[in-house]
Design a protein that fits this description.
The chain is α+β, with helices and mostly antiparallel strands. It has four helices and eight strands; from the N terminus they run ββααβββαβαββ. Strands 1-2-3-4-5-6-8-7 form an eight-stranded mixed beta sheet, with helices on both faces. α3 packs across α4.
């Protein structure tokens, strides 16, 4: 399996910047509100804890067939970091291991029977700090991520969303995903089958 390089991505208002450990201090402040973790569990991380998590994520997945791709969301208007988007890419039929993600996708999700056998499965996740919520930034970033995944060897895009997390369900919908009957750890599996090139 080839190793993907996380490249800069751009949307109308955002630069999706490849994650670096140097982002930890600003991201710890952006994600400090305990309300962000109401549906996903956990608690805000300190800058040091995020720096260590980011270092582990940047070291890559222990499985050589899996790629972890992580971006911070930089608002072009003022340069602030507003959140993150993430994708874990694995061969179809293989579980996607955790990346230390803060939001949405529950790691370790096997592909469903509806997924094509060719290509890879990308499990995506997103989080936007409360100060920047309600502006459509998570949807914009998720759409940019899915557009990039369409250029990779990806056949299926997956996200897991808590059934009561209506804002995340709206992001998944905006990114082109649809809910399935699948559940994992109480979350609904959302899925998008990408067309073959």
């Amino acid at each position: 399996m080839r190793d993907l390089l996380t490249v800069p991505l751009h949307s109308e208002r955002l630069d999706l910047v490849p994650l670096r450990t140097g982002h930890a201090t600003e991201m710890a402040a952006a994600l400090a509100d305990p309300a962000l973790y109401a549906f996903t569990g956990g608690a805000p991380s300190t800058a040091d804890a995020l720096r260590a998590r980011y270092a582990r994520m940047l070291a890559g997945a222990p499985d050589p067939g899996v790629d972890w791709c992580n971006w911070v969301l930089r608002l072009r208007a003022d340069g602030s970091l507003a959140g993150t988007v993430q994708a874990t890419l694995a061969p179809a039929g293989q579980a996607t291991p955790p990346t230390g993600r803060e939001r949405a996708a529950s790691p370790g999700s096997p592909t469903s029977g509806s997924a094509r056998t060719a290509g890879r499965v990308a499990e995506i996740a997103w989080v936007v700090g409360p100060h920047w919520q309600g502006r459509g930034l998570a949807s914009e970033a998720a759409r940019a991520l899915v557009a990039w995944l369409e250029t990779q060897d990806v056949s299926t895009v997956v996200a897991h969303v808590h059934p009561d997390h209506h804002a995340s369900a709206a992001v998944a919908t905006a990114a082109g995903l649809s809910p399935t009957a699948g559940r994992q750890d109480g979350e609904v599996r959302w899925e998008l089958i990408l067309p073959r090139a």
